[in-house]
Design a protein that fits this description.
Number of strands: 18
Helix content: 25-40%
Structural class: alpha+beta
Number of domains: 1
Strand content: 15-25%
Distance between the termini: 30 Å
Amino acid sequence: MAEETYPPFKIAKIEISKTISRRQHFQRVHKKLLNHKDVIFEALQQLESDWAGFCFVKILFCNADESCNFTEAYCKTMRNVQEKNPAGRRIVWIPDLFDVALLKSFLDNEDVEEQILDKHLVAFEKLGQFLDTVEDTNKILQNELKIESIKEGRWASIFGTHVLKMLAVYDQMKIDSGYCELSTECPCGCKKPINIDDNSMGHEEVWHGSVDILLGPTCIEVFNSYQGDEDDFLESSNSAFERKRGKLENSQNQLISESITFAFAMRGGVVPLIGISKSSFIIYMYDPDDDLLYESTSMPLFLDSVKGRQLHFSSVVALWIAINHSYFFKGVQASHVEFGYKANLQNFLGEEQHEIYQKHIRMGGLRHVNSNVVEFKAGMNKGKFKRF
């Protein structure tokens, strides 16, 4: 059987309406974004500060070589910001990875038309359209947040439909069919259609499983609440990365295994895995070529106001950039490779497993694959163990 070709979607073809010229389209989008210039500039200013950024993650031990579902994955890790040597505690800011300056230039000056490609115009227009209707979106989300025990499938459908998909240039959003309570319409009552499909990926002999949302070349995992969701950072911290140890570990195991597997499934290039709860989100990106694993700070989804919980504009822009990363990602910098803080995934793979990750990771058809790893507890002894 011939190898399938990935990614399993077509990159959206950007077309400018034939009824207007490109110049007219440029001016229309520029005018739309100028209506939101202040909030966008404030968001960009935060994204260019220590409010958000990425560190590097090293794997100390993992079970990537075993037939294991994502929910049973194990990754003991170390972040470079936890190293004792100050020279190793370096942070990658969002502008180092994504061309956020392009948006700023677009708002500041119309004379950048030649630098702005059609794909950028469409992405800018999506952001402007989202901000035009953000108050309506906030009301929908506020109603959902009132539900004390909202199910993950419902939150995935509503947040995916009204935020993630609205920010994306890609129109191909798939919710995993594993949620038994899902219907083909958004559960908020707006009746917007939902595409339910098989979002499984990986390989039977190594990490595998399903992710909640596939949105073009972006993978999203939704949590009702993940470990470390609240009080994520030390109050006395000088860096957003000085997390309380262990707070994110349970979620981190799953997110790292999914991020690495998704990167191999995409057959090259760096793609984001976004972990989202009801209050915050985090981004992982793995580079299979240079074996670098990026982990972002945890960013808040909402701010409290007199109108109730409102989407955090800086986080909205960060999500917009990550979802449309194929238009704004600047590539892995040579300085990041030279820094040398690698994930070391290959240290935990045999020759056979290495070939599987490189050549045989696939999308779909893995929903009912059993795992060889089980959780076990006896007295004070507990952990995840491989079956005989």
